[in-house]
Amino acid sequence: MKPGAHLLAFGGTRTHHRMACAIEDAGFEVRDMIAWLYGTGFPKSVDVADAVGKAAPRPDDAQAWEGWGTALKPAIEPVIVARRPPAGTVAANVLRHGTGGINIDA
Q1: In total, how many domains does the chain have?
Q2: Same domain, yes or no: 1 and 47
Q3: Which of 65, 68, 78, 82 has its CA 20 to 30 A from that of 18?
Q4: Residues 7, 34: one domain?
Q5: Which residues lie below 8 Å from residue 73, measured CB to CB, with a gap of 6+?
Q6: Is 13 within the bounds of a domain?
Q7: Rounded mean pLDDT of 93-105?
Q8: Residues 53, 35: one domain?
Q9: Which domain holds residue 70?
Q10: SS3 for 17?
Q11: Are both 8 and 59 inside the same structural domain?
């Protein structure tokens, strides 16, 4: 990658912190994060009432746990925005390599 080039890395809600650290360890500057929101997807969760119903000696024990789970439904995908450090100033880097900025107005 050219100096000043940007990187977008998509990760999971439970592991994006490790991805951000790995990106920093590779020499990039973490600049921001984008949250990609979506309404579909399935929770990776255990239905507590169902689990209790299978394990409890009395079936009525499960009723107290109706609606309980072990995880939330994912609704975002974190996107780490990082940049390879520019060579010198941003202005010098843009003139030499054509990278280093983000066209925010577009």
Answers
A1: 2
A2: no
A3: 68
A4: yes
A5: 41, 42, 43, 45
A6: yes
A7: 95
A8: no
A9: 40-74
A10: helix
A11: no
The distance between the two most distant Cα atoms of the chain, rounded to a whole number of Å, is 74
Contacts 24+ apart (CB under 8 A), 9-13: 9/79, 9/80, 9/82, 10/36, 10/77, 10/78, 10/79, 11/77, 11/78, 11/79, 11/80, 12/74, 12/77, 12/78, 13/74, 13/76, 13/77, 13/78
Give the C-alpha separation, 17 to 33, whole Å: 11
- Let me know whether 86 and 35 are in one domain: yes
In the 8-state DSSP scheme, what is residue 106?
-
Residue 106 lies in a domain: no
Do 10 and 33 lie in one domain? The reply is yes
* pTM score, whole prediction: 0.75
- Element at 10 (helix H, strand E): strand 6-10
pLDDT tier, 13 (very low <50, low <70, confident <90, very high otherwise): confident
DSSP-derived secondary structure for 26-79: TTPEEEEEEEEE-S--------HHHHHHHHSSSGGGGGGGTT--SSPPP-EEEE
Q: What is the pLDDT of residue 91?
A: 96
What CA–CA distance (Å, rounded) separates 84 from 99?
10
